[in-house]
Amino acid sequence: QALDSFPPLRNEAAVHVLQGRMKGIQGHCNSCYMDAALFSLFSCTSVLDSMLFKPFPLCDRNVQSILRDEIVNPLRKTGFVRARSVMHLREQLTEKGQCSSFTNAEKDPEEFLNLIMHQILGIEPLLKLQSGSQKEQECYCYQIFMDKQEDLVVPDVQQLVERSFLSSDLKLVEIPSCFIIQMPRFGKEYKMFSKIIPSLELDITDLLLDSPRECCVCGNVATLECS
């Protein structure tokens, strides 16, 4: 018998369910990278719900059921997930991923996403990127890389993505079904930005390869692009 599934939280319901003490995903033993990723992917959006239900060709149904029944459904129903549930997932990732440190060490979120999406669930890559004239590359998320820029004190996500793409000479080959973006990394000793404002919508017009765009001088369809 299938367990109940709960839709993502929206608007007032999200505030009611997720605000307050003992809300979110309980941290334990360097799990913050995974907790933050899981919360971002599932609490308030259904765009990746196929990860929870779809029988992908290479899919590990045990990991899929832990993700769905022990993490996502409790998060959407009560706004709280116990650390034990995340540890159960981490134990399975350790077993399946040929990496012994998923249960105790801090990882890069990209490593976690690649393991669970590619090796365990067998999902096709979400992004197709191209740098200059090089061959296009496929990936599951995009990590923002950029040098410190003095004019950006409290940037928003739109500014960071645009500048990161520009500095790396990157373009999106096609409009992605889901655009997972990892903010600039920081540690205890150094933070590139003390705050980043979330952009509730992202304009990717200028990030698309060969996309027709308006000339900023005459208003006609542009034929040249100046960085």
From TrEMBL:
InterPro entries according to UniProt = Papain-like_cys_pep_sf, Peptidase_C19_UCH, USP_CS
What is the protein name for this chain?
CYLD hydrolase
Q: Which Gene3D superfamilies match?
A: Cysteine proteinases (3.90.70.10)
Per UniProt, subcellular location reads as: Cytoplasm, Cytoskeleton, Spindle
Q: Name one GO molecular function term.
A: cysteine-type deubiquitinase activity
Q: Which GO terms describe its biological process?
A: protein deubiquitination
Gene Ontology cellular-component terms listed: microtubule; spindle
Q: What are the residue boundaries of the Peptidase C19 ubiquitin carboxyl-terminal hydrolase domain, all occurrences included?
A: 24-204
The UniProt keyword set, sorted, is:
Cytoplasm, Hydrolase, Microtubule
